[in-house]
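>> received
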Amino acid sequence: MYHLGEVLIRRQQEKLIRSVRKFVSRGQPYIIMDFPSTKDPGHNASWLGLVKVLHEVTGRQPVLTGASAKSIDDVKSTPGDAPIFICGWSDFGDGQLGRDDIRFRLACRYPDRTIVQMPQTIDFANEALLEYAKRTIGRHRKFFFMARDEQSFGLAKANFDCDVEAGPDTAFGIGPLKPFDADPLRVLYVMQPFGEDDVDIAEARAIADGPLTNWINGPDSLARMRKSSVVKAAMRRGFSRSEMMAQHREDVAARYVDYGVKMLSGAQRIITNRLHGHILCLLLNKPHVAVARNGSRLHDAISSWASDSPLVEKATNAGELLAAMSRLPYEMNGTWYKASRPMDLSPSLPARDLVAHPSIV
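>> returned
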């Protein structure tokens, strides 16, 4: 079946590769920090995509991967020219200090290291956290920040004394995915309640019925060390503990991504209020509706990086769901249709880059 999202995905992969090449070259050592602390397939997709992009650029595995405070100390034993890439699976400044600490502590501990915050949403809980981030980043001499939506880009440009760039979420680095064999399902909701101002899930399901998953509670067994990871590392001549841990974390991320893909595979239509739900739908060639309030970061990110994709439609409330679903394409006998007519599948899509408002630059 023709993959309606393939051209767009390749475009985002190329964007990520160009961005990474500014900081690391073929054969150069590098570090990846902030391995996801959750079992969320989307968060793990950001890690897995970043691993794939960095391997594509350097042709090698990271010399260190980290997720905890101890990992910060381990950076001392790595080559001095190894830049630190921080995975953008969580929101920067989201008020959960445990997550933010690894970023700020790296900046304070290694002022001479190149530190690259990969594409991320910025959402500070209060002014005090924002001021702390401004001071910490401002003191660092080689901190680079990448934002994955226009609002975050503007906030970073206005507040952070460092180079700021727009970039898609690193989950795009995984590339197109194939669904698993699964029982067919007309509609699937991949949603999580975020707050009182968000779309009412119960109201949405009353309009278009379907099972609901927030998919964040995968089995703990997927995170266990397996012999296969040790064998893979050894085949790459990675015999050190750090090299085996890097392979283990890559494999864990791949397992949780597969866990999410299996959930999505049977659905003909997916309704989601999650950014990574949207991205995995694109990778899987799944038509979907992204439901979020007006001005949301989800819709902002879609407008920035997937506005020309026929696979996604936006809705701002439950009442818009049916109309949005009716605009999605559907496949029949290997042919894609939209509004009951065969789609004209152009070999390329117009490039749409995130452009900051002139007043911000």
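>> Residues 241-265 form the longest helix (25 residues).
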